[in-house]
Amino acid sequence: MRILGVVTLVSPLGEYGGPVRVAVNQLQALAARGHQVVLAGATRGFERVPREIEGIAARLYPARTLVPGAGFAGLTSPGLLRSLSRHVGEFDVVHVHAARDLVTLPAARLAASRGVPTVLQTHGMIDESRHPFAAPLDAALTRPALAAARAVSYLTERERGSLVAVGRGRARLVELHNGVPPAPAAEPADPLELLFLARLAPRKRPTEFVAAAASLAGEFPEARFTLVGPDEGEGAAVRAAIARSGAPDRIRWEGALPPEQTGARMRRATGYVLPAIDEPYPMAVLEAMSAGLPVVVTDSCGLAGTVERTGAGLVVDARSDSLREAMRTLLADPPAARDRGAAGRAAVRRDFTMDAVAAQLEAIYAG
Fold this sequence. Notes:
The protein is of the alpha/beta class. It has two domains: 2-179 and 353-366, Rossmann fold (3-Layer(aba) Sandwich), CATH 3.40.50; 193-351, Glycogen Phosphorylase B (Rossmann fold). Helix content is 41%, strand content 19%. It has 13 helices and 16 strands. The strands form three sheets. Strands 3-4-2-1-7-8-9-10 form an eight-stranded mixed beta sheet, sandwiched between helices. Helix 3 runs parallel beside helix 4 (134-148) and helix 9 (283-291) crosses helix 12 (334-351). The radius of gyration is 20 Å and the shape is globular.
């Protein structure tokens, strides 16, 4: 099959996060099974716009801010939409990693209007919203795109309920889990390092990680606590929290990394911590488990049940002391932490393979 994957934004430091990682993983797995695949999207930040992303042919066009102050939701890409208008008929299916934005929703509507089957994957990003931007956008683009799609995938029952509500029962819903490619096992560079690797955005709660680290630094003088990720609004608060932590030499923000380097950075750590609230299905957690790192997530994380069921790490509530105690548990008993990491690695190899995801996608695409 000829398959086009569409994402909102591709950038050098992966600021759009999980949806792009998912799209690339899927396209790589589908290409390995003999399909012709292309990644399309808006882009910014590259000195020269790449024609390939991790071995996948890419058609990327400049991002434009149409609605100032709306973040990713306010982006559009006239060049991308013009290209799709000319070339979308070359594909057998268009897999849109959709959000409430002016890149992916117009792309989905354009493909459907040309008679090309679409599959929408929303990554928990289309939910019941009171934002004033949501109602008119849903009426004009979101609901028609959901209704026209051959299938709309969901990750969790919570996301399924949101799609039923937003789509008013017209979307053809299918459950589709994410997977990750096999990863080498972690080889920690330090005896004890807990890692926060995510965007520094309010929902990710990076300052909670810093606060917990500051309270544990004296108890574990050999431990390091590291943040890696782009600033999405919390950078100044993180810097200030590190400065007053009393241990700025061991609590560090290393900045952002290109997406293709984050896996190697993760494998240098001994544990992964994501204090985020209401995170639908964080790919970084799966990637950490794949590398054999024990993980700490909150009970509102879409993978909390998996972490708890498989023994891959610790699940905490939103309170600061719960996070601190979970991090203390990993630091205080490294052998037990390694056992949790091994359990997570085994679970990913068993339940989250990209070959299984690709096979399910083939069935969905075929209708």
